[in-house]
Amino acid sequence: MANRDLSEALRQIPTRVSAQPSAAERVADALREQIVNGALRSGTRLTEETIGAALGFSRNTIREAFALLIAERLAAREPNRGVFVATPTAGDIRDLYATRQLIEPAALERGPGFSDEAVARLREVVEAARVCRERGDVAGVAQGNQEFHRSVVRLAGSRRVDHLMEGVLAEMRLVFHLMGDDPGFHEPYLDRNEVIIRDLEAGDRAGATAALRAYLADAEEHLLRALHHP
Amino acid sequence: MANRDLSEALRQIPTRVSAQPSAAERVADALREQIVNGALRSGTRLTEETIGAALGFSRNTIREAFALLIAERLAAREPNRGVFVATPTAGDIRDLYATRQLIEPAALERGPGFSDEAVARLREVVEAARVCRERGDVAGVAQGNQEFHRSVVRLAGSRRVDHLMEGVLAEMRLVFHLMGDDPGFHEPYLDRNEVIIRDLEAGDRAGATAALRAYLADAEEHLLRALHHP
DNA sequence: ATCGCAGGATTGTTGAACAATATGGCGTGC
DNA sequence: GCACGCCATATTGTTCAACAATCCTGCGAT
Hints:
The structure is a homodimer. Helices cover 71% and strands 4% of the residues of chain A. Chain A has helices at 2-12, 23-37, 48-55, 59-71, 90-110, 116-135, 138-154, 159-178, 187-201, 205-228; strands spanning 45-46, 75-78, 82-85. The first copy, chain A, has a 3-stranded antiparallel β-sheet. The model of chain A is unreliable at 1-5 and 13-18 (pLDDT under 50). Chain A binds chain B through residues 11-12, 15-16, 19, 22, 60, 63-64, 67-68, 71, 76, 78-79, 89, 95-96, 98-99, 101-103, 105-107, 110-112, 156-161, 164, 168, and chain B through 11-12, 15-16, 19, 22, 60, 63-64, 67-68, 71, 76, 78-79, 89, 95-96, 98-99, 101-103, 105-107, 110-112, 156-161, 164, 168. Chains A, B: Residues 21-88 form the HTH gntR-type domain.
């Protein structure tokens, strides 16, 4: 029946039009915010009862929220001990950059979303970060830098890959907090984004890709060195 | 204290040495198996009470299992209506292949795990699939083909990317079941894997990558066409 | 046939309960 | 003083029961 198809279609398109997120999702949102902001530091124990009482939800709901955060790798469960804010290891950092080295250059070099307008949007993102630097807005620089890489990955044109990158960037923020948020950490990378975008504007996509690869390799080494000298 | 470091380290290494998975994970495993095997078809409703009674677990545990499957995109929640086995749409298929087009060629062309031994392992996988074809083992051919692509992605050397690919392949199986599991579907692709591996053995990594890209483009079109003529 | 409306079923969420496991303190023996 | 074993306590893992909110179904009225 045509009506069946219609209701099916309506259901597929907007998974939720304006439906409020479930309680578990709201709890997860609140916790995620605190974690990526650094308010909840790596290694912090997330006690079910404490959090439930603090946010006004039952243990079962908190538990569902934990499951979401664990799936995002922002938290880790230690059986019969509890859930903790994740503390990325050197191995985790290497894995993050192995992922980024695979995805970001590939998206930049062959992403189907590439176009003059896309390059213009990337330029805007870099400029916004530069304004933040001139204002001394350290957090803004970091955020702008993340937005640049997020936008690069978006060129791949895949929701799934975007989602993966979202998780990568969230875990990167955890890594930065773990190192104590050195204020000057992100600053030098702005100029390297500038080089990449200039290559793109000059039509040199391969050159931009090579520059991005070098960027990622240096950033990884930078972080790993910082991790061993805390 | 050194002892603190030790217990920390011991905890990091083997997340669980021999610990049995939790009840929720076991339920999720059972359901996942049924889903990717095709025993639970796309669109099937997963009622909390029914499944709980069938497997002997409480509603809360079932709910946690559902959360896992939903995170893997093998199931979808429709608020206040229930959880259903996911039914991939044409858009989902396009997204799957956008992801594969990004990841697989990149892993093959620049993955740090590439080596003569890795090529030899890929050769073995292809040969195993070929044996299945000669035996008329259709399921074996499909499985061998998946194993080939899984192995290609493994060249990237990232757990995270491997995990992404695991989800992609699981959803691919859902797509195949959705189309009715045409017995001859995977057969032609074996020869294309053969071409790829021959390029690799000849030292032509770029050629193999190009062949892989063409493979993926054709497979995507093949599937999308089949979807519109069911 | 369309609309509205009650009745029943299922989900979303809560609260309480209990076993299993981990943590920390205490005493004991060396 | 310190290593060891033991017990009290706290927390997790899981179950069960309950209730409101929402959705689906069928029936009757228009």
